[in-house]
Amino acid sequence: xxxxxxxxxERKALFDREKEIEELKNSLRHPxxxxxxxxxxxxxxxLKVFLKEIKRESLLLxxxxxxxxxxxxxxxxxxxxxxxxxxxxLGEILKSVRGIRLAGLEVEFDWRKGGTSxxxxxxxxxxxxxxxxxxEAQRLRGPxxxxxRNAIAHAYDYDSNLNFILTGSEVGLLxxxxxxxxPSSPLYGRYIHEVRLxxxxxxxxxxxxERGFEEAGVRVPPEVLNQAVRELDGIPGWLxxxxxxxxxxxxxxxxxxxxxxxxxxxxxxxxxxxxxxxFLLVLKGIAExxxxxxxxxxxxxxxxxxxxxxxxxxxxxxxxxxxSLVKDYFFLDPIYEEASKLL
Length: 343
Ligand code: ADP
Ligand code: MG
What we know:
It contains 15 helices and 9 strands. By secondary structure, the protein is an alpha/beta fold. A hairpin with a 2-residue loop joins strand 8 and strand 9 (330-331).
C-alpha cells in the first residue's frame, strides 16, 4: 500500500527511489555512508528496503529510542534489542566478547565502565561482514557520543568488512556528531559518503498520488490532486499523510492540511524543547516572511522588547540550519513553516 503511514519495507510499496537504492549498493566500499534528507522524505523507508534486498547480515538501531543525555546502559540496551533477531547467527561470535552473556534469546551486556567494549564488539562483528545501520544518528550526540564515535572511527580504520549507514534528518547535527570538521574528532577529515534524498518533483508527486488512489480504488478529482501537490511540495511523507487521511474519509484538503500542521507543531515543540525561547521567535519570524539578518533581528528584538546580541542570533540561525528546518531564511518544509506561525 503506497499510502501506508509506516516506513515502507518492500520495494513494491516504495515509489521511485531506484536510483538512490542503487547508489547505496554501489557505495559499500565506503566505511561510512550517511543517508540524509528532511523529515518524511523517506530515509527510513529507503534504508529498510535496501537492507532487505542486500544479501548481508545487518543491524538496525533507531537512535530516537535513546533518551537525551543517554549513557552506556541505554546505548547497550538499544544494541541488545537490535541484536535479538540476529542472535541465532551471531551468538557464537558475541559470546566471545568480554562482558557479553547470552540468556536464551537475549543478549546481556556488561555496561559498566571496563565492561563490554564497543571497539572489541565491532572487531568481532567485522568477521561477519555486517552492515550497522543507525536511524536518526544525530540523536547519538550527548555525553556518551565520544565513545560511540571512537568505536566507529576505529572500525573505519580496522574493520574493513563492516559498513555503517547513518541516517539523519538534522543533517548539520549529524555531521557535528561525526566531527569530520572538528580537529579533535577521530573522524576529522575522513571521507563520509553521502546519499541525499530529495523531494519528488511535481510530476512524480502527482503520479505517486494517482497510483496510491488507484491502488485503493478511489477516484479523486484531478484538481484536488493538483492542489495537494502544490501545497505539499513533493514531500513523500505529507503526500502519504494526505492519501491515507483521504482514504480514511477526510475528503477535504484544508482539513487534512490543518491536521498535518498540528502534527508538525508538536514535533517542532519537541525539537526545540530545552532550547532558548529565541529559537521559537526566529522560526516564527522567518515563517512570517522575514528574509534577512536585519529583518529577523528586528523581529526578535521587537517581540522581546530588548536588544539581541549578534552572536546569539547567529548561533540560533546556525543551529536551525543544522537542524534542517530552515536554509537562507526559508523553510525546507511548507507544513513546518505553517506550524511555526502558530508558535
Ligand atoms: P523519514 O525516515 O525520512 O522521516 P519515512 O521513511 O518514515 O521518512 O517516510 C515518511 C512517510 O512517507 C511514511 O509514511 C512512508 O511510508 C512514506 N514514504 C516515504 N517515501 C516513500 C516512497 N518513496 N514511496 C512510498 N511511500 C513513501
Ligand atoms: Mg525515519
